[in-house]
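This entry is passed on directly below:
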Amino acid sequence: MSVPTHPLQFRDYRLIWLTRFFSTSATTAMVVVIGAQVYQTARVDYAMDKAEAAFLLGLLGLIQFIPFLLLTPVAGLLADRMDRRHVAAAATAVDLVIGLVLAAANAWDFLSLPLLFSMAALYGAARVFIGPAVSAITPNVVPAELLPKAIAISSIAWQAGAVFGPALGGFMLAHDPALPYWYSATILLLAIGAVLAIRHRAPPAAAKEPPLKLMAEGAKFVWHERFLLGCVTLDLFAVLLGGATAMLPAFAYDVLPRGSLGLSPEEMLGIMRGAPALGAALVALYLGFRPIAHNVGAKMLWAVAVYGLATLVFGLSTDFLLSLASLSVLGAADAISVFVRNTLIQLNTPDDKRGRVSSISGLAISASNELGEMQSGLAAAFLGPVAAVALGGAGAIVITAIWTVLFPELKRAKTFAPQYRNKEEVS
């Protein structure tokens, strides 16, 4: 029998791929619609001005981040001590309930800002469990030499879903506000079926140490491994400043010319929300066949700098096509950074700690995204959405330069080979 040479030759990996695609396409459709409805509800039903409505978009990010922060240690522990399929399926079921509730709220006209914020918080709580559980399965179903390619192809699933979901959600929102949520609920059912179809794998042996000690162990491991710490915190602070997606509803409704290319604001929003994922998907497709293998650390740093530059250009753009191009470049650069960072984290973390370290990485990503949305909302309340996004992009470039000096280990990383400070400590 021939030895598999590609991750998609493994049945369980194909199911992981489908799980990511279904889950991402459904949840990103919901997220873009929730943001649009928060902005429009604030403007129309609550008579808020543009700055006040933009601030609510930032607050929406904070509402999602708080449960993520509180539950991250628990999520990582469960991913290391329970059946990871069941953890992911339960969290996806919560997303399904969110979709059904918001579909009903739009269909029967009881949508309100408190309901939208409540569902956003519940979404943040569910999402914290999905990432560590699914990410920690992948290294167990493909051999280590295929893991970089597996991560790149898995990124294609995520990015394809992030292109398809928001664009479809925006177009459906323009015709029927309940429709995107009905779609999401249906697709989430498929995600649950895919993750549960992964062949049963016994959970890691239960440890005798107290749960709190196990949680702290994962954080301690990242803190003492400067290489991993640099990877995690680079994304945290760069995207914290450079996040533009939170302000997309403001750009679609009030900044860019209305009717660009004959599109409604909702359709413009959906296309803009999918543009970063399109750029990322194209890069991920390329990396799936020719993954980065040399000078990986320097390439990650350059990618983050380009991400900041593209964000700056988007913030200053008043042309819809230039805005789309900037968002696509932003997504492509982010895909390179994410690919390198995720591969380094997976290959530099022992399996018994992988769930907890993945949850910490997920917390940093969530902090950068959701707290970045809050930062953008606060900046927009004082400076307006254009200045908020442009200054954030410039800040991401500065952060990259600082991290290059603070963590020279990143620039020196030539390959994905494990960079443990002391291998005996993690054996």
Notes: The radius of gyration is 20 Å. The domain at 8-199+211-426 is CATH 1.20.1250.20 (Growth Hormone; Chain: A;).
